[in-house]
């Protein structure tokens, strides 16, 4: 019996523990809520700060071109816009495209008793003088010149002329034989020779020259055409004769071949002539208006929310009058807003600029200070009525100049520009309710009021909306930056996560017209994210 | 940040949820005809020869000095973690130990044979074994729960390791005189996979001006595992890229080692036997094909003074915490790792009035650094009929109170046994102990001659 009890008791002891183990439905991991809140006693995370966000960076982010911004040595921004203008004209050259060839034929009679005789016969003279004037012939060419040419004096040309003497019997041209061309043609020998010289318009043989070949050629360079007084109806005409004066002879050694007459032929040909320059008188009248609108960049500034006023606008001009006549110059600057001129400052009225003269002037645009234009426009006007003046055919003339508009800038109360930092990764991926305080020091040296908005960005880079907006950030100046301490409370909820945040700065204009400079801007320092109740993820 | 927490929680939950477990089956100390009693004390010899193959002995345990109840809390019909805002810091911390350890120890005997010699008993075994443990200090959870505060927050060592190896053992026991038996087992250990990660003396200073995180750590991985390196976003160092981990290359044999079991029993008087044993004393020299260190400090004073110029990928305060688990590659290394070992002592008394029953007590201490544990177990065994042996025990120790029971069936030459230590009365629906526990499962089949 005892053994039986022991057997049963121990068996029960062994089996019992197997029966007492049980599962507890309260511990069902399938129902586990994985929401956790870390750092419940609070935690602060330093975030960092920004470098100085200059006005230039702000404007660049706004898409405003900064090409026309320059920085003065003292760091002040200056808006500078330069340009050029020019009015030019030229007097083209002309050419004689069709030159007539001029020739003179002259027959010289040889006494018949000497023709064909033997030189060994007694009484035969050593030389028979043919004497006399050979004759003359016309030389003629003409061409159209520009219609405004009224009194042509000279035409510089570049051409060649060829004088050809042709005879059917060897002839001695006697020393002093002259061939005279029209005085209107200034020529020179292309190939100087001891046989002849060229002076003025006359070719003169300096010794007896035996013209043994059938063709005797003298090359000349045609340098200038003296055309004064030859203008008629817009055409230049040369109509003169060639004279050949002097004597010639036939020598004894040639008697056996001497015919009863010798044919003498002068041929004068000129290559095509191009006139490169000619002094001429022109009936001159000139007037032009040059409008330069400096609207492009200014329009962009205002379009993007920065309304720029000019603190000390100035204009510099440098003009060269390349015309051979004095001109009158007029200049004015217009400021337009909504296509209406709201301010105008006249700079020059009928300022005389002599021929070949210059105008270098600087103008203070005091009447335009403080204006906030959409468009600034420069009106330049030049005019003259000089009557007849001398110009040169083939020359260029111009009236040209450059200008620079320069001004320090300030912003007016209409200004409203938004600047955003890049997303600042906090590593927070909020899935529950969380209180986050973003504290920071904002140092402002811009004369602008600002507010700062915190924008949430989720882990996928998508914006989750504006989380909070700060109180006003006080304006400052370059010399006296103002620090504003901000504590921005973010109430993150399940639907508003903030893995990252973007700090958006709204810059609001001011009536303070203090000039803006390179070193002015806004800087955010000591950004700290405080999670007083931890972070729920 | 959430990744870190999830990693920690997952590691804890994974370790907690291992269902098959048990280091040596201490209740088996009281079980008659238990073929593997020599594993508790190598001086113990069977009266018979036996042979087992493949499924002849599975011995697995999972132990934790905290249960799921320390991390999970029923709240309003839901289950929440201790980091949920509905759970106060005190409530969460109250259930945690200074070092919260989770360990598993699994041994599968692929082949075993035991036979008698002249005044001796011999055993030969081939086992596959694995040990895993993780140690998470209470301060780690306090940091996550409450935050770093305004001073310096120190977190003691955080570590996790997992080792698997093959064990070829030869055992010998003999009697010296009538009373004393001694025995020992020599073990050749072949490393298969090994991994050890630890972070030492992590300290965090966090205030509005700066976060400073300092720590040192090591990562050692052996076996058929490889990992490439990448450049750290937060530190710029060449670090191991966990995403590149591959398990199809590396060292097939990851290390060699040696182990030793020693034991003795002494029959003080008729029916009363005392015993003592040292088990698993030894270790393996692991050839690390992944070895990295983490050292130095990570200072975070913000993203600098040009955050408006940095991209969205700029480092943030949480990068510092991530950098804790970034390990820089260190060229070739081997490390010797002592295996956890056990010292036990027991007394067993066979009832004079009923020699088929015994009662006794066994004290067991597992040496495993900060995850060491101790248990004292009182038990009894009975063989009411020749075919059946039963044992039951109740223990108290590091893991609290627990029951254990064993059943052994002798069906002719076939011996079937199954048993468990520290049966816990309360489990989650996933069979994770709600409270601290050491749960051991032992089952097998042998052929006896």
Please tell me about this protein's structure:
With 537 residues, chain A is mainly β. The N terminus of chain A is likely disordered. Chain A has three helices and 40 strands. Chain A folds into three domains: 124 residues, Jelly Rolls; 147 residues, Jelly Rolls; 174 residues, no CATH class. In chain A, the strands form seven sheets. In chain A, strands 8, 9, 12, 15, 19, 23, 24, 27, 28 and 30 form a ten-stranded antiparallel β-sheet that branches. In chain B, 49% of the residues are buried. Chain B has a 19-stranded antiparallel β-sheet that branches. With 449 residues, chain B is mainly β. The longest helix of chain B is centred in the N-terminal third of the chain and has 15 residues. The N terminus of chain B is likely disordered. Chain B starts with a helix and ends with a strand. Chains A and B meet through helix 1, strand 1, strand 2, strand 3 and strand 4 of A and helix 1, strand 3, helix 3, helix 4 and strand 19 of B. Strand 1 of chain A pairs parallel with strand 23 of chain B.
């Amino acid at each position: 019996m005892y053994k039986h009890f022991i057997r049963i008791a121990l068996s029960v002891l062994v089996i019992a523990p197997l029966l007492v183990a049980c599962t507890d439905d309260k511990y069902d991991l399938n129902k586990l809520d994985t929401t956790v809140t870390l750092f419940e006693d609070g935690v602060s995370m330093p975030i960092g700060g920004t470098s100085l966000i200059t006005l230039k960076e702000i404007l660049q982010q706004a898409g405003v071109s900064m090409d026309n911004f320059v920085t003065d040595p003292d760091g002040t921004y200056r808006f500078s816009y330069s340009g050029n203008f020019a009015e030019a004209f030229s007097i083209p050259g002309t050419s004689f495209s069709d030159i007539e060839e001029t020739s003179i034929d002259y027959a010289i009679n040889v006494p018949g008793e000497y023709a064909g005789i033997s030189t060994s016969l007694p009484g035969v003279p050593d030389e028979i003088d043919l004497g006399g004037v050979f004759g003359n012939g016309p030389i003629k060419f003409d061409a159209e010149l520009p219609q405004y040419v009224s009194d042509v004096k000279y035409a510089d040309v570049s051409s060649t002329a060829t004088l050809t003497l042709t005879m059917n019997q060897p002839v001695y041209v006697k020393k002093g034989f002259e061939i005279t061309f029209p005085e209107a043609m200034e020529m020179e020998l292309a190939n100087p020779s001891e046989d002849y010289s060229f002076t003025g318009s006359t070719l003169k043989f300096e010794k007896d020259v035996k013209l043994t070949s059938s063709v005797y050629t003298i090359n000349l360079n045609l340098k200038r055409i003296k055309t004064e007084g030859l203008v008629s109806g817009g055409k230049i005409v040369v109509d003169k004769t060639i004279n050949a004066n002097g004597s010639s002879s036939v020598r004894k050694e040639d008697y056996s071949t001497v015919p009863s007459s010798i044919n003498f032929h002068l041929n004068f040909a000129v290559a095509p002539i191009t006139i490169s320059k000619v002094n001429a008188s022109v009936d001159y009248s000139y007037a032009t208006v040059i409008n330069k609108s400096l609207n492009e960049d200014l329009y962009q500034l205002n379009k993007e929310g920065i309304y720029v006023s000019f603190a000390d606008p100035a204009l510099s001009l440098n003009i060269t009058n390349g015309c051979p006549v004095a001109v009158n110059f007029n200049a004015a600057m217009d400021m337009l807003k909504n296509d209406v001129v709201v301010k105008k400052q006249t700079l020059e009225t009928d300022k005389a600029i002599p021929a070949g003269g210059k105008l270098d002037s600087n103008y203070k645009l005091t009447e335009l200070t403080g204006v906030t234009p959409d468009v600034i426009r420069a009106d330049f006007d030049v005019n003259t009525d000089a009557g007849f003046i001398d110009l040169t055919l083939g020359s260029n003339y111009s009236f040209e100049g450059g200008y620079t508009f320069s001004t320090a800038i300030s912003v007016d109360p209409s200004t409203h520009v938004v600047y955003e930092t890049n997303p600042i990764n906090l590593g927070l991926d909020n899935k529950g309710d969380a209180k986050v305080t973003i504290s920071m020091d904002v140092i402002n040296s811009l004369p602008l009021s600002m507010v700062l908005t915190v924008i949430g960005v989720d882990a996928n880079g998508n914006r989750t909306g504006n989380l909070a907006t700060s109180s006003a950030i006080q304006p400052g100046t370059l010399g006296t930056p103002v620090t504003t301490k901000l504590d921005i409370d973010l109430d993150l909820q399940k639907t508003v996560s903030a893995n990252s945040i973007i700090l958006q700065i709204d810059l609001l204009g001011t009536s303070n017209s203090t000039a803006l400079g390179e070193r002015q801007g806004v800087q955010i320092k000591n950004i700290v994210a405080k999670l007083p109740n931890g972070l729920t993820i | 940040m959430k990744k870190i927490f999830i990693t920690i929680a997952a590691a804890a939950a994974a370790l907690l949820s291992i269902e098959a477990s048990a280091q040596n089956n201490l209740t088996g100390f009281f079980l008659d005809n238990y073929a593997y009693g020599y594993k508790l004390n190598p001086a113990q010899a069977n009266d018979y020869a036996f042979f087992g193959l493949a499924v002849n002995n599975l011995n697995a345990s999972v132990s934790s000095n905290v249960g799921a109840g320390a991390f999970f809390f029923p709240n309003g019909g839901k289950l929440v973690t201790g980091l949920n805002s509905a759970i106060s810091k005190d409530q969460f911390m109250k259930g945690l130990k200074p070092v919260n350890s989770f360990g598993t120890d699994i041994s599968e005997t692929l082949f075993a044979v035991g036979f008698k010699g002249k005044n001796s008993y011999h055993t030969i075994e081939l086992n596959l074994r694995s040990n895993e443990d993780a140690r998470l200090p209470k301060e780690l959870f306090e940091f996550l729960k409450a935050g770093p505060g305004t001073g310096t927050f120190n977190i003691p060592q955080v570590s996790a390791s997992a080792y698997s190896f093959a064990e070829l053992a030869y055992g010998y026991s003999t009697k010296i005189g009538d009373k004393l038996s001694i025995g020992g087992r020599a073990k050749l250990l072949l490393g298969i996979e090994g991994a050890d990660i630890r972070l030492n003396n992590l300290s965090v200073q966090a205030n509005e001006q700066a976060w400073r995180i300092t720590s040192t750590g090591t990562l050692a991985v052996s076996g058929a595992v490889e990992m490439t390196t990448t450049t750290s976003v937060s530190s710029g160092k060449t670090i191991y890229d966990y995403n590149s981990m591959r398990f199809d290359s590396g060292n097939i044999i990851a290390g060699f080692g040696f182990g030793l079991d020693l034991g003795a029993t002494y029959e003080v008087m008729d029916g009363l036997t005392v015993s003592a044993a040292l088990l698993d004393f030894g270790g393996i020299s692991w050839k690390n094909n992944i070895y990295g260190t983490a050292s130095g400090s990570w200072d975070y004073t913000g993203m600098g003074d040009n955050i408006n110029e940095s991209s969205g990928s700029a480092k943030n305060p949480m990068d510092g915490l991530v950098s804790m688990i970034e390990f820089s590659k260190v060229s070739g290394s081997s490390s010797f790792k002592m295996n956890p070992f056990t010292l036990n002592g027991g007394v067993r008394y066979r009832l004079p009035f009923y020699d088929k029953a015994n009662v006794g007590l066994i004290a067991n201490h597992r040496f495993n650094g900060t995850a060491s544990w101790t248990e004292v177990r009182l038990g009894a065994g009975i063989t009411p009929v020749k075919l059946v042996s039963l044992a039951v025990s109740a223990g108290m120790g590091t893991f609290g109170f627990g029951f254990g029971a064993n059943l052994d069936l002798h069906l002719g030459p076939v011996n079937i046994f199954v048993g468990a230590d520290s049966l816990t009365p309360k489990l989650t629906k996933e069979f994770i102990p709600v409270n601290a526990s050491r749960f051991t499962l032992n089952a097998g089949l042998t052929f006896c001659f």
